[in-house]
């Protein structure tokens, strides 16, 4: 169910499914999406300083009446906020906007060259001070992680990357698994741009599920946390309805054959 959780490498529990709110407008739109999700049973929200909607996310949580400790809130430090002192300040701003004392997960949004190691030191301090329950990274390739782990005191709990059947990054996936870093999929629906793929359509028909549900179920069966975005209540509900069916081994393999290095977002090798 939506209450199902993975246990991160520091023992903190994180829901397998959350609501992503990238490109959701601050104010009424984000408040309404988060409120719908919480009503449906979502207990994890993925925002970022860059998304410009942390205030609305915080207000929706406060107004939901759900105990704070039952909701897992992720935010991220943006590229122009990185560096040691800068990150400590950026965290303070995110915390203020969200209206929360403690965040559940704070991520380095992108591996900004020459800076992300300093940024990581700041995240380690925030974690040690108890201001965030887990720290992690986003858009880190294997070589970024290797470099980070060279000096890190704390191993990232999570790496949030673009991940869907057309971009499976098996080597990075294996590396994260071996290091105890939980993989989290962004754009798990491939931004809605692959719903007419013939393999996906065939599976949707076979399981009598929607293409979105097939994609999200594929994440879960691989042990990947997933954060689909929608502002439409019926779709938010649909994207959570993943727990009454199972893809067969063969169909998991079939979906994995879609892999073709197709990115809808930026490439971390050149952006950051
Ligand atoms: P997504 O793959 O979740 O696709 C979202 C789009 O798919 C929606 O805008 C809608 O058009 C469509 N959609 C959603 N549910 C649907 C349904 N049931 N049926 C039909 N269409 C549906 O794309 P995303 O927003 O890019 O990724 C999800 C979340 O991941 C973001 O909101 C954000 O929280 C996170 N993210 C993180 C990064 C990063 O750099 N760390 C980058 C991008 C996104």
Automatic annotation (TrEMBL):
Single GO MF descriptor: oxidoreductase activity, acting on the CH-OH group of donors, NAD or NADP as acceptor
Domain named NADP-dependent oxidoreductase: residues: 25-258
Annotated catalytic residues: 51 (proton donor)
Transmembrane segments annotated in the record for this chain: none
Sorted UniProt keywords: NADP, Oxidoreductase
Keyword NADP: yes
InterPro entries linked to this entry: AKR (IPR020471), AKR5G (IPR044500), Aldo/ket_reductase_CS (IPR018170), NAD(P)_OxRdtase_dom_sf (IPR036812), NADP_OxRdtase_dom (IPR023210)
SUPFAM superfamilies: NAD(P)-linked oxidoreductase
Annotated site residue numbers, Lowers pKa of active site Tyr: 76
Residues given in the record as substrate binding sites: 109
Keyword Oxidoreductase: yes
Protein family per UniProt: Belongs to the aldo/keto reductase family.
Name of the featured protein: Aldo/keto reductase
